[in-house]
Structures are given as C-alpha cells and as structure tokens.
Amino acid sequence: MDALTYLLHGFSVALSGYNLLFAFFGVLIGTAVGVLPGIGPISGVALLIPVTATLTGGMDPENAATSAIILLAGVYYGAMYGGSTTSILLNTPGESSSVVTTLDGYQLAKQGRAGAALSIAAIGSFVAGMISLLGLILLAEPLSNVALLFGPAEYFSLMLLGLLAVSGLAGKSMTKALIMTVVGLLLATVGIDNVSGVDRFTFHQPFLYGGFEFLTVAVGLFALGEVFKTVIHREEERRERLTVKKVLPTKEDMKRSTGPILRGSLLGFLIGVLPGAGATMASFFSYIMEKKFSKHPETFGRGAIEGVAAPESANNAASGGAMIPLLTLGIPGSGTTAILLGAFMMYNVQPGPLLFQDHPMVAWGVIASMFIGNIMLLILNMPLVKIFAKIIDTPTRYLIPFIIAISVFGVYAVQLSLFDLIVLLFFGIFGYLLSLHEYPLAPLVLGLVLGPMIENNMRRALTASNGNFLVFIEKPISLFFLIAALLWILVPLLLKARGKKVLVNESM
Fold first, then answer.
1. Helix %, strand %, coil % for the chain, to 5?
2. Contact at 8 Å (CB) between 41 and 399?
3. Which of 181, 331, 367, 481 has its CB surrounded by the most CB atoms within 10 Å?
4. How does pLDDT run across 88-132, given as a tens digit for each residue?
5. Distance between CA 353 and CA 334 in Å, rounded?
6. Pair 179, 505: CB distance under 8 Å
7. How far apart (Å, rounded) are the C-alpha atoms in residues 278 and 390?
C-alpha cells in the first residue's frame, strides 16, 4: 500500500508539464541514438548530462535532479527501444545487446517482412518495459537481496555458462560456434591488462593498447561484411529488389510472439537485476531459450519472428531490471546505469538503501516517468515503423553507400581514430569470409564482450580465495552454473550418440 501511495505521488511529479516534456525529449533522443549505429545508450546519456545541467538551471535541487534523471532515463530505455531498427533493416547492430536481433530480424527484412519485425520489436519492448517496471516496484527489495549473494565466483560461472550457451547461436554447427567464441575471447585479450599493466599481444604498438573496440568489430563483421557479400555476389546472385509486403504483424505473428515476449521479459528482468550481467546476456540467453523450447528450432536464423520478439523484449526488460541495483543498492548494473549513477551524484542524490527515504520525489518520479515514457515510445514508434521499413525498399546501389557512410561515421565519431577505420575494413573482409564459409558471427562478438568480464571475475574470485580454484565449486550457486554449463555441452552429444536428432555438427 505504501508503494502504491508513493507511486501515485510519483505520477503527480512525472505528469507535470515540464517533466512530460523532459520525458518526451528523452525518449525521442533515445530512439534516435538507438537507430544510429555507433552512438549507443552509454555515449548518448553521457553526452546529455551537461545539457540537462543547463536545462534544469534555476530549479530547486530536488526538482532539477528529478527532471534531469527523467530525461536521461528516457534516453536509456529509448535507445534500447530504437536499437533494433538498424539491426533488422541493415544488419548493423549499434550495440552488443542488438547483435542477436540481426540473426532473424535481417532475414525477415530480406523476406519483405521488415514491418512485422519492427512492429513486434516495438510491441515486445513496450510489454517488457511495463513488466520490468512492475517488477521494479514490487520486487526491488527482495531481488536486490538475491543479487547481493552473487560474488565474483558466481559471475564467472554464470558467464562461463553464457559462453558455452552461444553454441545455441550456431545455426548448423556447434563446432564452428565454439571456434568463433574462442576467437572472440582471444581478441578480447589484446591490449593493456587492467590489473598488471602488462601489454598483451600489442607488439608494442600504442594503437593496440586499448584493445579492439566492440563497436568497430561488430559493425565491420555485420555491416561491411554484408556490403562485401552483396557487391561481390551481385552478378552470380540475381537478387530481387527487397520490398515491404506488409507493415503490421499478422495474427499468426502475434500468436507466435506472445510466449517469447513474456518469457523474454521475465528472463531479461531477472538477468538485468544482476549487476554486471546486462542487456547483452539477457538478449542472447532469451534467444537461446526460445530456440531450445521451439518446436521448429531449424527456423531460427532464417527469419523466425520469435527470434526478434524474445531478445528485443529481454534487452528492454534488462534495462528496467538494471535500475534495481542502481536505485536500491547504489550499484550500477550496466555501463549506462554507471553513467546514470554519476548523474545522480552530480545532483547530490546518493542512490542506495536510503534513496527512497531521503529523496522519494526523485525515486518515484523517475519510476512513474518510465511508465509514461514507455507509452510515449509505443505511440511515437508504431507510426514510424512504416517509414523505417521503407528503408529496405531503397535500391541496393543507394543503400550500400548509405550503410558504408553510417558505419564509417559511427565508428569514427566514437573512436576518433584512423586505426579503427582500418580495423573496421579488416573485420568487414573477415566477416565476409566467415559468412562465406557459414561461420556464425554472433559468438565471436559475444566472446569479445564477455571476455574481459569473465577474466576480471575469475581474477577477483581467485584473489579472494588465495588462488584456490575450488572456490568455483565450493559455492552452491557457482556450482549450479558450472553443472548447467557442463550439461549444456554433454546432453546434445549424448542425445546424438543415442541416435536422436540434435543440432550438433557431424564433425563432433
């Protein structure tokens, strides 16, 4: 009852004229940030912090903090919402959580069903946003207690399970997916080691000290790789011009997407609560789960609508879940919430157990504004689906220069480095060669993203246990994840050995 009273008070704050404007501009800018590959929610939120300081100048500190966080939170979940657009239309993920959406989203676009894919992504994002907000209100306290049980050993084991689970993104061959995962992990080791300060695989070249940036690698592999494929095979493969057959999803699409949206929302929310797990793990775990549950797993990767509904719901729900450790514990659950933590501190508001007691207007005003912002996003984005979907109607000779331009602009705008443009070109060629031989690209990118996280957590766990590796099996939650990881690999092999039909490469 107390929570309901506070929420109603939060709505009275969020529905004031200027806060509605802040929420609207937040989600509008967030959608633009999500649509443009290269900027991403972290950069978008960081860039707007000084702008909010100017906009809220003259307000009292409490109102200024509320309005600023409403705008920045709008950018955050608006960017998660808009991130699917370029993944579906141009095979260009702007951030790691959108990588999985390219697998089926782009295939649907090539089949002329870009409108249905974008609509399902928008509807899934809206439902997930609402479910995660309800979860935020009702479960913030108990879930934050569970999250506290996770130490470095538990995170290491969870991420190990995640790495092995990428075999679910394999398509036809688990072997090729595991090879790509290892390549991603190897690429993640390049650069200066954060703990020892030793440079690894840099050959003493300063431009390699920072390692390979996710954005450069992902845009190169997916976007430029697709460009090379289209250009090189234009004579061999007489492509039909892509057209948008229907903008809205059919009843069958909605029926097939309902379960994945609900399951993706719940899974994404629970993963989002874990600090450090983030939207990337949420999106690919939900994709793998749907593929495992599906009666037709062979359709995944070839344009299954469930392959868009589940990850898009999960990554949006994860953004709501990530607000729980931020608001209740003061621990950022993702890179973007780390920036939001800085924004809270800038306004002299300390997130943590005392936030709801000391600053109820800020806490509940922001939560209520997220309900309003999600409704704004749906109203704003559904009419835009038709316009976005028309992009795929553009003839290839116009679309290819456009993809090259936004890829180069996106990478250079973030990195400001000529070297990254060379890396972009290299990974474009590499991505083309890999796709030519049917090597899945997503496991490589996910290995690159998860590599530093898994390494850091393993080091922290070993440091705390004086180098005792048994720490990973002595902790029950960690042991559970390790057993699950082992079963993930062994069960398909055992089933195959017994003559069952499973997606395991013949060479294994």
1. 75, 0, 25
2. no
3. 181
4. 877 777 666 777 888 888 888 888 788 888 888 888 888 988 888
5. 19
6. no
7. 32
- Tell me how far the alpha carbon of residue 137 is from its chain's centroid: 23
Is pTM beyond 0.90 here? no
Running DSSP on this structure, what letter comes out for residue 240?
P
**What is each CA distance from 283 to 228, 278, 286, 287, in whole angstroms?**
27, 9, 5, 6
Q: What's the pLDDT tens digit per position in 405-427?
A: 877 877 787 677 888 899 989 99
- Give residue 392's pLDDT: 58
pLDDT tens readout for residues 167-226: 555 556 778 888 888 998 999 999 988 778 888 988 888 888 888 887 788 778 877 887
The maximal CA–CA distance of the chain, rounded, in angstroms, is 72
Cα distances (angstroms) measured from residue 130 to each of 15, 62, 109, 121, 126? 17, 26, 27, 14, 6
- Residue 426: the pLDDT is 93
Looking at per-residue pLDDT, the higher value among 410 and 477 belongs to 477
Cβ neighbours for 35, distance < 8 A, ≥ 6 positions apart: 82, 83, 85, 86, 94, 388
Q: What six digits make up the tokens of 347?
A: 């306004």
> In this structure, what is the dihedral angle of CA atoms 301, 76, 342, 445, given to the nearest 10 degrees?
10
Identity of the amino acid at 58: G
CA 212 to chain centre: 19
Return the DSSP state at 210: T
Dihedral in degrees, nearest 10, Cα atoms 235, 94, 281, 331:
170
Q: What's the pLDDT at 427? A: 92
Identify the CA nearest to 185 among candidates 443, 461, 504, 386. Answer: 443
Query: Is the predicted pLDDT of residue 234 greater than 90, yes or no?
Result: no
Q: What is the mean pLDDT of residues 326-355?
A: 74
* Tally of residues, the chain: 508
Helices (H), ranges, 322-417: 323-324, 335-346, 355-358, 360-389, 396-415
Going from the C-alpha of 385 to that of each of 27, 123, 381, 388, the distances in angstroms are 16, 11, 6, 5
